[in-house]
Write a structure and sequence with these properties.
mainly alpha; about 300 residues; about 55% helix; DNA polymerase, domain 1; hpI Integrase, Chain A; elongated
Length: about 300
């Protein structure tokens, strides 16, 4: 056995790399660790002791075994993404010469998106808050910023007032693994945030102090659960039949950018994805849009 090619040893090395170099969160690292452990266990059962012996058919056999054990396509797709990243790292470190997972396709519908809202549905949703009440003014600013910047709900509720640059129309965000990024937003979000900060926020804050931009009662920061409840109420009021979660706004943000012609790399940066393969789950949205445009406008579409 070649100890230097041991799946367990190199798996631990890769996890340390993700922790130190990539700064991934504990939850994300646990997911990677579980995927690598399952793969190492599979290799042991088929008598493979060195990663030098792993080729595409071996990984495919592993994925088929996961399917037969009842693992759904989405989980299998995430598992394959983990293996791709692992072998890519081993190539970068000159440990292996090729990535046996690179040419394997993700399981169909494996990374299915939640329902993406149309531009019209987004407009309906954003028009729901009552702009004459402090809570409504706050909610309007939250919805507008979340869609304008494609934020995760955890990022939205932890935005601090000092993180927002209204003159530059951008927000500083701390994403997974405390990764920092700057995301632009447009004039509608700027106007809603400015109106909230100058009118409603002082009323929600008084007599307390808080560094957070969006506040609930008694000056406490808005919670993820609180925002989700607000969003569901507005979606119902807007008559939107699709099941909506806070992530639906983030998915809509990415999908609408790609439909409008944005390149995948730019969307990756704005979303805060470490690996562009994560962003590539949106490419089918762009393809579907182009197909509709072709059918609509091409003389033989």
């Amino acid at each position: 056995m070649h100890a230097e090619y041991s799946p367990e040893r190199l798996g631990d090395q890769y996890l340390n790399y993700l922790l130190i170099e990539k700064g991934l969160s504990a939850n994300t690292l646990d997911s990677y660790k579980g995927d690598l452990k399952r793969f190492a266990d599979f290799l042991e059962t088929v008598g493979i002791q060195s990663l030098c012996e792993v080729d595409s058919p071996v990984i495919l056999k592993h994925l088929i075994g996961l399917r037969d054990s009842g693992m759904g396509p989405r989980s299998r797709a995430r598992h394959l993404v983990t293996l791709r990243g692992f072998f890519k790292y081993l190539m970068q470190e000159k440990i292996l010469e090729q990535n046996p997972a690179r040419r394997l396709d993700l399981p169909k519908s494996g990374l299915k998106l939640p329902d993406v809202l149309s531009v019209q549905e987004i407009s309906q949703l954003l028009s729901m808050p009552n702009s004459h009440k402090p809570a409504g003014i706050r909610n309007a600013a939250m919805l507008e910023l979340m869609y304008a910047a494609g934020l995760r709900v955890s990022e939205l509720v932890t935005v601090k007032i000092q993180d927002v640059n209204l003159d530059g129309c951008c927000v500083r965000v701390f994403g997974k693994g405390a990764k920092e990024r700057m995301v632009p937003f447009g004039q509608p979000a700027r106007q809603k945030i400015d109106f909230y900060v100058t009118t409603a926020r002082p009323l929600l804050l008084c007599p307390h102090t808080s560094p957070f931009l969006f506040l609930a009662r008694a000056g406490k920061p808005m919670t993820r659960q609180g925002f989700w409840k607000i969003l569901k109420q507005y979606a119902q009021a807007a008559g939107i039949p699709k099941p909506i979660t806070p992530h639906s706004l983030r998915h809509s943000f990415a999908s609408h950018l790609l439909e409008g012609g944005a390149d995948l790399r730019s969307v990756q940066i704005m979303l805060g994805h470490v690996d562009i393969s994560t962003t590539q789950i949106y490419t089918h949205v762009a393809r579907d849009h182009l197909k509709r445009m072709h059918e609509k406008y091409h003389p033989r579409g």
